[in-house]
Amino acid sequence: MGGMDLEAITKHSAVHAKPNGLILQYGTAGFRTKAEHLDHVMFRMGLLAVLRSKQTQSTIGVMVTASHNPEEDNGVKLVDPLGEMLAPSWEEHATCLANAEEQDMQSVLLDISKKASVDLQQDAFIVIGRDTRPSSEKLALSVIDGITVLGGQFHDYGLLTTPQLHYMVYCRNTSGQYGKATLDGYYQKLSAAFVELTKQASCSGDGSQSLRVDCANGIGALKLGEMERYLSQGLSLQLFNVGTEGRLNHLCGADFVKSHQKPPQGMEMKSNERCCSFDGDADRIVYYYSDADGRFHLIDGDKIAALISSFLTELLLQIGENLNIGVVQTAYANGSSTRFLEEVMKVPVYCTKTGVKHLHHKAQEFDVGVYFEANGHGTVLFSKAAETKIKQLAKESEDEKRKAAKMLENIIDLFNQAAGDAISDMLVIEAILALKGLTVQQWDALYADLPNRQLKVQVADRQVISTTDAERQAVTPPGLQEAINNLVKKYKLSRAFVRPSGTEDVVRVYAEADSQVIPMLPSQCLQLAISSYWASSSVTMLSKPRSGCCPWTAPRMCRRSPCRLQVCLSRCCL
Ligand code: 16G
Ligand code: MG
């Protein structure tokens, strides 16, 4: 078949053989598992990227990373032409290709090409980036092997943060209009916008203090180090967990800080000083500080969205154009943040399913679409019409309007519009705090978070739980949602939901309430879910647990000591 040397593909594929019986799924953020199981997936994603590039006649990105997962894991995701996540229909192709047995590789490739109407005669160009995991370099070479055997051209950027790779793809497919597709181009664009934006900042607030950054022992340390030169005196950073000693994401990083609600190890915190944490591939950021009494205060993605939305709303009001703004959250957004945005800021708020691609998609509906997950993934998207209008006002309008429009113009450049980006978000936040003369405590005081808790439980089949209403309501097992509703209605401002994870074999439970019940509420919901899980006919083929064994799982999954389950209500695991 023209454009596909099937013999060569078969030969190379044998070198990247799939382990027997291994089935993986292209999940919320690509493939993720132990690095030693991923060689065949990398080779095959190289092949798939070539097909996607031919089909879209655009540059496609391949990022080798497992984000906040432990160092021994790795993963891969494809980046679509405008820097977005891979289209859902291609996620299915990715899963099919990754799981094909060796002898079926040719037919699966041909099948994808046919289904997706790929013109195999087209050229293909792929850009590759990778994080700092020890396994990433070799796995990136397997991607390259897949690309070249299908006749694709490529550029290997080597070490990049995930959002930097998204940026490169976006630049290349818009003929450089979005920026120069080099690291220098990225640093120049962001630093110029930051310096310009902060020119009018006063010295109030705590802008003169340096910002402490926990880099999760990951790529963020390297890239922030490179960027510091461009920022000159504009921002003083102190980097911690830079990868010289600790392990990636181990007891540090945004995921650790958010889920444990405590400071990372390896960071010296002084009271009332601004600190932030990146995750392992620098697409997430959370802020925090400890007060004079040593109490830890987390400022998560919700409060980041609140700060940014307040600032943008004010500027939009000043330019006086009818540009609409919307904030997109997930079910995990703290109820207080939603109330603050809707009732105090008077901004419309929307809820989508978990996963950046869902929020990103929704945010594209607005002139100014602010999206953040509570865990710190997020950015702001500006429509083409809004950008054009703002640029025009920045040139033509009278003084006050022009000033606001110029700020917005710089903000557009400072946000990474291809993907949430810890570096870019950090610069935006630092600029806003400086311009508004706000201390980290004043920012924190925008609203008080409702106490909340999360639990996760390993299960044999997480799909037994299905949801609707942006994952806020359980549809199956029957009766579960009703039981949860009956429970939470007893408490003020309380809310709880149960959903299957999109990335792990676990069911997650979230609960919040304005009272002391919060430590018990999630486990009570969990108990309800457990009862309905076992009552559900779809799991009768699993053996019921022995008495005293983990209630969610088949007995073989239970380990008495230490327990494999993170949370378990049964006696054996407590
Ligand atoms: C992935 C997602 C993130 C989501 C998290 C938890 C991206 C880039 N990342 O890290 O958005 O919050 O998974 O998902 O989309 P889960 O609760 O379904 O496991
Ligand atoms: Mg990440």
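qc> Residues 301-319 form the longest helix (19 residues).
qc> done
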